Amino acid sequence: MAVTKKGPVLRVTGLAASQPDEELTALLKAAISDSLTDDEQSRVDVRVAVVPSCYNDEEKVALVECRGGVPAFLSELIADPLGESQMEMGDTDINFDQHFFGFTQLYTPTPDAPVVADVIAITGLDGHAYDSWRGEGSLGRMWLRDFLCKDLPCCRTMIYGYNSRLSSRGVDTIMDYGRGLLEELKKIRGTEELRQRPLFFIAHSFGGIVLAHCLVKAVQTMEDDHPTIASLYRATYGMLLFGIPHKGLVVDNMQKMLAGEDRHPRSALLEQIKEKSDLLASQLDDFRNLVRDRKIVSFYERRQTQQLQFDSEGEQRTRTGDLVTAVDSDSALLQLPGNMEDKIPLDADHSMIVKFDNKNAQGYSSARDKLMQFARDAPGAVAGRFARAQNRPKPSNMVPFPRDGAFVGRNDVLAKIDEMHRRTASKDHSRVALVGLGGVGKSQVAIEYAYRAREAAPHIWVFWVHASNAARFKQAYQEIAVRVELPGRDDPKTDILCLVHNWLCDEKNGRWLMIVDNADDDQVFTSTSASANAAAPLASFLPQAASGWILVTSRDLIAAMNLVGARLNVIEVEPMGEREALKLLRSKMQVVESAEGDARALVKTLEGIPLAVTHAAAYITVNKPMVDIATYLELFRESEENQAHLLNDKKARDIRRDAGVSSAVITTWQLSFEQIRKTRPEAADLLSLMTMFDRQGVPEHVLYEGRSKLQFAEAVGPLLRFSLIRAQAREQPEMRLQEQLFEMHSLVQLATREWVKLHGQVDVWQRAALRIMAAAFPSGQHETWAACRTLLPHSTKVLGYSTEKNDEARLDQATIATNTAWYLMLMGQYAEAERIGCSAVAAREEVLEREHPDTLTSVSQLGSLGSVLERQGKYEEAEAMHRRALQGSEKVHGREHPSTFAIVSKLGTVLSRQGEYEEAEAMHRRALEGREKALGLEHPETLTSVSKIGSVLERQGKYEEAEAMHRRALEGREKALGLEHPDTLTSVSNLGLALWRQGRFVDAETLGTQVMETRKRALGLEHPDTLTSVSQLGSVLSRQGKYKDAEAMHRRALEGCEKALGLEHPETLTSVSQLGSVLSRQGKYKDAEAMHRRDLEGSEKVLGLEHPDTLTSVSQLGLVLWSQGQFADAETLEIRVMETRKKMLGDDHPDTLTAMANLAFTLRSQGRKQEAISLMEACVQAQTQVLRPSHPDTESSTATLNLWRLESLDLGT
Question: Helix, strand, coil: what percent of the chain each, to 5?
Answer without folding.
Answer: 60, 10, 30
